Amino acid sequence: MHQSSFAVLSLLLLAPSLITAAPHDTSYTSSPHARHHEPSANVRGRVDNFDTPRPWRRLSDAIIGRIWGLAGKQKSLDTTNRANTNTHTIEEQPEPKLLAQYGDDVVLRFNISTTDEASALAEAADILFLDVWEFNEDWVDIRIAKDVVPSLLGLLPPTLEKSHVALMQDLDLAQAILNSYPSPSATQLHDQDRSYSPTLKPSTPSVKGHPFFQDYQPLSVIDPWMKLMASMFTTHVRKINVGISYEGRDIPALRVGVHATNSNQPSRRQTVLVTGGSHAREWISTTTVNYVAWSLINSYGKVHTITKLLENYDFVFVPTLNPDGYVYSWETDRLWRKNRQPTSLRFCHGIDLDRSYPYKWEGESTRSNPCSESYSGDTPFDGVEAQRFAEWAKNETDNNNVDFVGFLDLHSYSQQILYPYSYSCYDEPPTIEDLEELALGLAKAIRISRKGRPYKVTSACEGNVAMSKDSKDKKERLVLPRIESSGGSALDWFYHELRVKYAFQIKLRDTGSYGFLLPRENIIPTGEELLDAILYLGRFMLGEVGFAADKHTTKTEPPLKEAVEHNEDTEVWERDRDQDQSQFELRRRR
Ligand SMILES: *[C@@H]1O[C@H](CO)[C@@H](O)[C@H](O)[C@H]1NC(C)=O
Ligand SMILES: *[C@@H]1O[C@H](CO)[C@@H](O)[C@H](O)[C@H]1NC(C)=O
């Protein structure tokens, strides 16, 4: 499948006139049947009216169409040959019977306000092998089978029996999962009029960007898309590999930037790393990396600020740090989180890549439980993709004249901008002032420039704990048990080991309405939010905004708006009241 798709793509690059046949003939033989369903001239004419570059537009349609075509084919394969699961012709389309595995599940959000509640919930989740989706200082989201809910409630204090709600109320989980795959209407190749119009019609409000971003895309589309970017924009884009996955896939990346030839360029190339998909099911992180990459690539030479940014900095975009997990989330389990390495337990695969970096690795707590969703492996860097990616980054620094100045690790969900450290709240990062100032600036840029969503700013460790709301006085708030270990994160490693000055983990949309199953209409708005943040980061690094910029412009009122907001927004961390929080751990389990 990969081979044939690459062959076809290179054909398409060489001979654009062949393109129109590609989307609908999945075997690439010229059967008359396939021709019959080829988009007619009027469809192509409409497509050509867009102002994006035509070769790119056509190839994107070819790529998208290929997937839709295969999806249609897969459906018929499923019905005619259900038993034969080993002969998938594609890997992206879930089988209906696999969707059934989620049919009886719900996601519940529990309000947490006391130590008792937190520890009871931690224990119960452990006993019942529950999948903790997300948590922060206010709530914990847990996926659970409906018929286990009574058992769970039975283990919890009476206060928690009431203070929970089901997420995705009007939608059951299986439907939300199905909805997150490319739209079914797009796969209806036998209905020519409807096959393209629902997503391409310019009048649809959601069509604001490229159709590539109308849907989540599988790796088999993303990878050729990246190749295409590099081949179309040779002046400022290169496709590179930042490692090889456990199952042998490349970890693809785009390096975007312009090396001016004048002599006063600094010898070390300042570089910003933007990564997504280290947790497979967080699909919005992958699309957002691609959206930001595409926006910068496409605006170079057209938008002055972006041209300037790319002349001064390189960006390396890694949309799928965990390609094996990502593919698995498309073909087998939409809610898969870890990578796909085998563990000591035969039935539990996968290491949590964001727990397997060696800085403050906390694997002791999960070592005994490879089934945990946050299993850190047996030793630091057990997670193959984490280890190879880190090796790549180190080698770039040591041997390739690269100076990583920024690291944005995108995740979902909860709309938070998190700065180091993740592993502990008791160790303050040496550059905390810069980190907080910039994080608040990023959040503000997101909120203001295009009316994006509100993102909270906090340190990564605080994003991972719950605090009591019992007391009226914020200072009196109790720190509740940690929801799970948070050492060994990419954030801390890049900040501490690689000395990346501006390192953040950003949790994207939403705040729990759909969680990981964020509807595709959010792909572009979320991408724009992060683009705004990255443009702010660029201006900050260039000294155009922020405290340093204010000093230059002789403004004398020192407290920035951001600094004021900070005092209001930041939760008070009450160290003395901490009650042995490390005793409790609410493991992500399935
Ligand atoms: C959870 O707490 C928030 C405020 O902290 C409140 O608005 C909400 O109603 C609570 N939900 C439940 C189910 O108790
Ligand atoms: C390290 O970087 C150099 C320079 O780009 C490259 O030639 C070499 O292959 C890299 N080594 C590894 C192990 O990736």
Automatic annotation (TrEMBL):
Stretches assigned to the Peptidase M14 domain: 215-541
Pfam family, one: Peptidase_M14
Name this polypeptide is given: Inactive metallocarboxypeptidase ECM14
InterPro entries reported for this sequence: Peptidase_M14
Annotated region described as Disordered, given as residue ranges: 25-48, 184-203, 553-590
GO molecular function: metallocarboxypeptidase activity; zinc ion binding
GO cellular component terms listed in the entry, alphabetical order: extracellular region; vacuole
Localization per Swiss-Prot or TrEMBL: Secreted; Vacuole
UniProt GO BP: cell wall organization; proteolysis
Keywords: Carboxypeptidase, Cell wall biogenesis/degradation, Disulfide bond, Hydrolase, Metal-binding, Protease, Secreted, Signal, Vacuole, Zinc
Annotated Basic and acidic residues bias: 553-580
Cofactor: Zn(2+)
Signal peptide feature range: 1-21
SUPFAM superfamilies in alphabetical order: Zn-dependent exopeptidases (SSF53187)
Family to which this protein belongs: Belongs to the peptidase M14 family.
Function: Inactive carboxypeptidase that may play a role in cell wall organization and biogenesis.
PROSITE patterns in alphabetical order: PEPTIDASE_M14
Record has Membrane as a keyword: no
Source organism: Pleomassaria siparia CBS 279.74
